[in-house]
Every structure is written in structure tokens, then in C-alpha cells.
């Protein structure tokens, strides 16, 4: 019950009106006090530095006097200036060169002077002629422009003489300083004192003697400013001291400014705090109905949003202009304290600020109510105009084929630009500016609509890339009113078809693997019996003798059939994932050396020279050791079967920061006219004539086992060179390996 009563009180018109009045009055007081501070406080430095003797204002004042004295010493006296001894030679030469350039251009135009042709080769006579010609031109310039050069010389003297008089008058009217400046020839001073100790006895001074400078107080922040502002001649002596009475007067004024500024800032801070509190309350409560949910609008809310916003900007701009004029005028000349708030100038400035704040706040709260209602943009003239143009363009673009739509949009844009450009040419300056704004808005809208129209195409392209990577469940979702909605639907349908086809293929592959596994398993029992009986028969002396040979053939072929059946069973299990991996850290170099040692007899019996580079301790991987041993065994057997006799076989184990590599390279004993990708398929042999024994499963088993261990096996064929590369993730000390190959 109490909570309900508090809500009613907080939403009552009295509380809202009080908050509105609080913001308006506080704003008027804050800005008027700020304007008064701007008029009566020279700098915020009074807050950080209470002592005038250490202020940057005094530093700049001293610096100006020092520069003036130094410049006077450069000029010397009136006789030195009139004699032209103080003229800046560089400045004179620059201005003289300008006169020469103008004169020579006019001479070249009148006499049609030109250089030698580019294809003429220079020789001694032409060079000498050019030198003589240059001297003639120089003499002619001196003769014809002697009067103008004399005028230039006198003009520069007169300018320096005027500056000298101005400096002399400015330095003479310096009651705040005692100074003495001399270069041994001329002296400028406003005191009879010449002793350096006299000037260093003041509270603030600056002395320069033989290019050695000293400043006091030494804790000034602007000492570097004195040292680098201008150069002192080595024979200059400048003593400058600040009058103690001047310092006392300035310090008293600075203390008054400090009190005024400190008081004004507290008033402004308090007013700003009240403004924030009242403004937050008004923003929170404005527009709320009795139920606290619905938004209640006022008469002013019928204005369009952009008109209301323009009204706020107009009020702010008008108020700012008048406040600047008040600050620059004689208003608010005297400092303001609590008893001065009833002064006419304060009341006038405050009343004007309050009226401006009322209008601006009234319009601002109207925008807040629209924002709460989520209709800020929809209730603007700009939005309605853009919506009508958009509807018109959509009507054009939704009729006919895509080509017709694009052509119609281009024609509409070109015609609009042409018409607006013609109006800009024929209209006055103000109308031309308006048409320029319309043309800019039209161009911006065309760019926006193009991006808006093409954006669904980008979504479709991104979706195709995702589907291409195998995520067939991905669905492309765009606006059904888009130009590319039909294309998105077709791509989604295509993805569904690919998904169904892939499911069928996976099912067929699984059934084939299960068939191979079952057949291999069923063949094991009869094959075992055949092998056992063949073995028993081979131990008997059969008659006739040729029967023993037949038994030997049966035994050999049955052993080969058993091996083929085991290989087929193994590769089916690996490819179907129906295996258990025993992962451990393995040194591939050690494994390669062990595999070579196990087949040492066959290697020695072959006519091949093995070149092995397998440094142990560098090639650690996480893998199943038994399966990698089978991989290496198959690869070595492949080399022994198909490598060209009396050639070298290279086996290399290497590693980098993230991967380990095992590479087999040999020269083939047959022409390798097969596809390097097909050779890794089951029952595919490189020796298509099949002159050697083999099942075509060795490389397929090797590839499957490497993949099961997280690696990659690749085959490369270059002429007669056959190369197999195994790439695996390198294992770290903690047993982990990088994620991606």
C-alpha cells in the first residue's frame, strides 16, 4: 500500500513540475556563473599556482620584454638602421630575387629569349657564350631596376625604423620592470643601476651576461621557454627585475580571482549535480501512464522528430551566440557572490538561459518519449520520405527479371542525377546548394540500397562456402522479399540433396566395409584348415614326387591368401573406426631404425643401397607404436618390391617446431603411369602388369594407420622418382601435440 502511494506521489504533476523547474533554474545559474568567471578570471592557473611570481603569466610578460630588449640591441640605434647595417640580408636577397624573376619574365616575353635546343651538344664556345649572356642579363637588370632596388632597400630600412620606434616605446612604458641592456655599443635602461647584484635582489629577475643566463624563482615551469625562445649575442648583457610593488598588486588581484573562481566552481558543481538529478528523474518518468507501462504523449509530440531535433539545435545555437555576446560585452563585469544574484545583469542572463533551457528541455523530453515508444525514427519526415522512395523502388524492382530491375534502377539514378545537375547549373547559389544536398542524399541512398540489396547475395555466398566445407545441415536464411530469395531456396534444396546423397554413399561404404569384414572373418577358418593340412602334407614324402611340389605351391598360395585376408580385415577395421588406439610418446627416428633392423636380411639380400638420416631424440610424436611399426614395415616392403636394382633409397626423419616428417624416396623399376591419389586406394597397384606379388593394400593400410594416429601420408611421383611423406604433429614434453596439421 505504501509502495503504491509513493509511486503516485513520484508521478504527480507537482513533483514533475518541480524537477523541471529545478533543471531550468540550476542551468540558468550555472551558465551565468560560468560566463561571469570567463569575464573575471584570467586563467584556471590560479587554482594550481597561488603565487603570481611563479605564474606563467609573469613568465610570458618577462619573455616579451627580454625579446624586445634583445631586438633593440640588434638594431643598435637610429643611425645604424638608417645606414642599412641592420637589414636582414637573407630577406633582402629573397625579395630582390622576386623582382628579378618578374623582370626576366617580362624581358623574355618581349625579346622572345630562349635556351639552346635540347639536341644541340654543348661545347666550350656555347658555355662561354652562356656565361657572357648571364653577365649581360645581370648588368642589364642592375641598370634597369636600379631605382626599384633602391626603393626596396629604403622600404626595408623604413620598416625596421618603424619597428625600432615601436619597440623603444613599448620598452619605455614598462613600469613593472627595471631593466638594463647593453652590447658595448648602445645601452637601454630605465634605471641608473648597473650592478648585477642590484637586479638579483628582487623577488623575480632574469639576467643574461656573456651568454650565461640566470632566472629566479628557479622553480618556474617555463625556464626552458626562456632558454630557447631567442638567441642572445655573446656580447649582450641584459638585466631584468620585476617591481615588488607590481608583484604585490598582481598577487592581491590573483588572490581575489582565486576566491571568486573557487566559489564559482562550487556553485557550478552544485548546479550541475541538481541538473543531473532533475534530468534523470524527468527522463525516467516522462511519458509513463498510470499503469507504468503505456506511454502518454503530449501536444508537442505531434511534431516530426527531425523538426523537434532542428528546434533543439536552433535553441542551443541561439543561446550560445547570445551568451558569447554577453561575455564579450560589459555584462557581468563584476564578480558574483551569493548576495549579488539579484543584480540586474545576473537576473537578465539567468532569465534568458532559463527560457532557452525550458524550450530545449521540452523538445528533448518529447524525443525521449518517442524513444521509449520505439518510434523515434518512424515519426520523422526523413524516414517517411525514405520509406516512400523505398516503396517506389521496390515496386519497380519486384516487377520483371533481375536484369530489368537492375537496368531500371540504373536508369532512374542516372536520370535523377542528370536532372539535379541541370537544376544546380541553372539555379542560384542558395538553390544550387540545396540541390547539391539533395544529390548527395540521393547518392547516399543509392549506395545504401545497393548494399542492402546485395547483402543477401553475400549471405548466400558465405552459406555456400560453409556447405562446401561439409556442413550440409547449414540453412541459408534471408528475407523472403529479397531479390535472391529464390536462389537461397535453391541452394538449400541442393544442400538437402547433397546430404541425402552423402548419407546413401556413407551407408553403402559402411555396408561394403561390413561385407569385407564379415567375408574376411569367415575365410579365416577354412584358410587355417588349408594351411594346417598343407603343412602336414609338406612333411610327408608323397608319391609321385611332383605331388610334393604341388603341396608346396598350395602352402605358399594359402599363406599369401591368409596375409591378404588379414590385411583386408585390418584396413576395414581401421577405416570404420572400430579399433582401440594405445597412444604414447614415440621417437619416430628410433622406430625407423628398429624397422630397418628387423628387415636387415632382406635389405642386405636386395641390390639396393639405403641412405638413412634419422637422428634420434628430435622426432617425438603421440601415436600407437604398433600401428606406426606396421606403416614403416609396409613402406620398406614396398621399396624392396618396386625399387630399381642397384639404386639408392633415401629415408629421412626431420622435424620443425610443430611437426615431424618421415620421407621415403626411391627409383621405381617400372613405368609409373598411375594417379598418385589412386595408388592409396585399396587393391590398386602401381605395377599394372602385376609381375610382382602384392595385394595392393600396403599403402592403403599405411595411410589408414597414419590417419588413425593423427597424421597425413602423401605420395608424390616425379618421373621415375617415387616419394612417400608422412607428416605428424610433434609431441611436447607434457605429451600434448599441436592441434592442426
UniProtKB/TrEMBL annotation:
GO molecular function: kinase activity
Protein name: histidine kinase
Superkingdom per UniProt: Bacteria
Histidine kinase domain location: 518-715
Organism: Heliobacterium chlorum
Residue intervals passing through the bilayer: 12-35, 261-283, 303-326, 346-368, 402-425, 431-451
Reactions listed under catalytic activity: ATP + protein L-histidine = ADP + protein N-phospho-L-histidine
UniProt keyword annotations, A-Z: ATP-binding, Cell membrane, Coiled coil, Kinase, Membrane, Nucleotide-binding, Phosphoprotein, Transferase, Transmembrane, Transmembrane helix, Two-component regulatory system
Group of enzyme by EC: transferase
Membrane topology: Multi-pass membrane protein
Coiled coil residues, start to end: 589-616
InterPro entries: HAMP_dom (IPR003660), HATPase_C_sf (IPR036890), HATPase_dom (IPR003594), His_kinase_dom (IPR005467), HisK_dim/P_dom (IPR003661), HisK_dim/P_sf (IPR036097), HssS/ArlS-like (IPR050398)
Domain HAMP as annotated: residue spans: 451-503
Enzyme nomenclature, EC number: 2.7.13.3
Primary localization: membrane
Subcellular localization, as worded in the UniProt entry: Cell membrane
Amino acid at each position: 500500500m505504501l509502495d503504491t502511494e509513493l509511486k503516485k506521489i513520484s508521478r504527480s504533476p507537482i513533483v514533475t513540475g518541480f524537477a523541471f523547474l529545478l533543471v531550468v533554474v540550476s542551468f540558468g545559474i550555472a551558465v551565468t556563473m560560468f560566463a561571469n568567471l570567463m569575464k573575471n578570471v584570467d586563467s584556471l592557473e590560479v587554482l594550481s599556482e597561488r603565487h603570481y611570481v611563479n605564474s606563467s603569466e609573469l613568465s610570458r610578460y618577462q619573455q616579451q620584454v627580454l625579446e624586445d630588449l634583445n631586438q633593440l640591441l640588434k638594431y643598435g640605434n637610429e643611425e645604424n638602421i638608417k645606414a642599412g647595417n641592420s637589414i636582414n640580408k637573407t630577406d633582402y636577397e629573397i625579395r630582390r630575387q622576386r623582382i628579378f624573376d618578374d623582370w626576366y619574365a617580362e624581358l623574355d616575353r618581349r625579346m622572345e629569349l630562349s635556351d639552346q635546343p635540347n639536341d644541340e651538344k654543348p661545347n666550350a664556345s656555347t658555355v662561354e657564350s652562356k656565361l657572357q649572356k648571364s653577365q649581360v642579363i645581370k648588368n642589364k637588370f642592375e641598370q634597369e631596376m636600379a631605382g626599384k632596388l633602391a626603393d626596396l632597400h629604403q622600404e626595408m630600412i623604413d620598416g625596421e625604423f618603424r619597428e625600432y620606434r615601436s619597440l623603444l616605446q613599448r620598452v619605455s612604458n614598462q613600469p613593472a620592470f627595471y631593466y638594463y641592456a647593453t652590447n658595448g655599443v648602445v645601452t637601454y635602461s630605465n634605471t641608473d643601476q648597473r650592478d648585477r647584484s642590484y637586479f638579483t635582489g628582487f623577488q623575480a629577475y632574469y639576467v643574461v651576461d656573456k651568454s650565461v643566463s640566470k632566472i629566479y624563482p628557479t622553480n618556474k615551469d617555463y625556464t626552458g621557454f626562456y632558454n630557447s625562445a631567442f638567441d642572445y649575442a655573446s656580447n649582450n648583457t641584459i638585466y631584468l627585475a620585476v617591481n615588488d610593488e607590481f608583484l604585490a598588486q598582481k598577487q592581491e588581484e590573483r588572490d581575489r580571482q582565486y576566491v571568486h573562481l573557487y566559489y564559482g566552481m562550487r556553485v557550478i558543481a552544485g548546479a550541475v549535480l541538481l541538473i543531473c538529478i532533475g534530468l534523470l528523474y524527468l527522463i525516467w518518468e516522462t511519458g509513463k501512464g498510470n499503469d507504468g507501462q503505456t506511454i502518454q504523449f503530449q501536444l508537442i509530440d505531434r511534431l516530426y522528430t527531425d523538426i523537434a531535433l532542428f528546434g533543439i539545435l536552433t535553441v542551443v545555437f541561439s543561446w550560445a551566440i547570445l551568451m558569447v555576446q554577453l561575455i564579450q560585452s560589459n555584462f557581468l563585469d563584476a564578480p558574483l557572490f551569493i548576495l549579488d544574484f539579484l543584480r540586474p545583469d545576473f537576473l537578465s542572463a539567468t532569465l534568458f538561459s532559463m527560457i532557452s533551457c525550458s524550450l530545449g528541455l521540452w523538445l528533448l523530453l518529447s524525443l525521449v518519449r518517442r524513444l521509449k515508444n520505439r518510434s523515434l525514427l518512424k515519426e520523422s519526415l526523413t524516414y517517411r520520405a525514405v520509406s516512400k522512395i523505398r516503396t517506389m523502388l521496390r515496386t519497380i524492382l519486384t516487377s520483371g527479371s533481375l536484369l530489368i530491375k537492375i537496368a531500371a534502377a540504373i536508369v532512374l539514378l542516372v536520370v535523377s542525377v542528370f536532372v539535379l545537375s541541370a537544376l544546380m547549373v541553372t539555379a542560384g547559389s542558395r538553390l544550387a546548394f540545396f540541390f547539391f544536398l539533395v544529390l548527395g542524399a540521393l547518392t547516399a541512398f543509392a549506395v545504401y540500397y545497393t548494399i542492402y540489396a546485395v547483402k543477401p547475395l553475400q549471405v548466400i555466398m558465405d552459406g555456400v562456402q560453409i556447405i562446401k566445407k561439409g556442413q550440409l545441415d547449414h540453412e541459408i536464411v534471408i528475407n523472403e522479399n529479397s531479390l535472391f530469395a529464390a536462389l537461397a531456396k535453391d541452394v538449400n534444396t541442393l544442400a538437402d540433396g547433397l546430404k541425402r546423397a552423402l548419407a546413401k554413399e556413407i551407408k553403402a561404404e559402411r555396408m561394403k566395409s561390413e561385407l569385407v569384414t564379415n567375408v574376411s572373418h569367415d575365410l579365416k577358418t577354412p584358410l587355417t584348415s588349408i594351411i594346417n593340412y598343407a603343412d602336414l602334407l609338406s612333411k610327408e614324402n608323397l608319391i609321385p614326387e611332383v605331388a610334393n611340389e604341388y603341396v608346396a605351391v598350395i602352402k605358399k598360395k594359402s599363406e599369401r591368401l591368409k596375409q591378404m585376408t588379414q590385411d583386408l580385415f585390418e584396413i576395414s577395421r581401421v577405416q570404420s573406426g572400430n579399433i582401440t588406439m594405445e597412444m604414447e610418446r614415440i621417437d619416430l627416428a628410433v622406430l625407423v631404425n628398429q624397422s630397418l633392423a628387423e628387415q636387415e636380411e632382406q635389405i642386405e639380400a636386395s641390390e639396393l643401397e639405403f641412405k638413412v638420416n634419422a637422428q634420434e631424440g628430435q622426432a617425438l610424436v603421440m601415436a600407437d607404436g604398433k600401428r606406426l611399426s606396421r606403416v614403416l614395415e609396409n613402406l620398406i616392403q614396398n621399396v624392396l618390391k618396386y625399387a630399381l636394382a642397384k639404386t639408392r633409397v633415401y629415408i629421412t626423419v626431420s622435424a620443425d617446431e610443430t611437426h615431424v616428417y618421415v620421407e621415403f624416396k626411391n627409383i621405381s623399376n617400372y613405368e609409373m603411369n598411375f594417379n598418385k591419389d589412386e595408388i592409396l586406394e585399396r587393391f590398386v597397384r602401381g605395377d599394372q602388369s602385376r609381375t610382382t606379388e602384392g595385394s595392393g593394400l600396403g599403402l592403403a593400410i599405411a595411410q589408414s594407420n597414419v590417419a588413425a594416429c593423427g597424421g597425413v601420408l602423401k605420395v608424390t611421383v616425379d618421373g621415375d622418382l617415387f616419394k612417400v611423406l608422412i607428416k605428424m604433429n610433434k609431441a611436447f614434453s607434457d605429451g600434448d601435440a599441436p592441434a592442426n596439421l
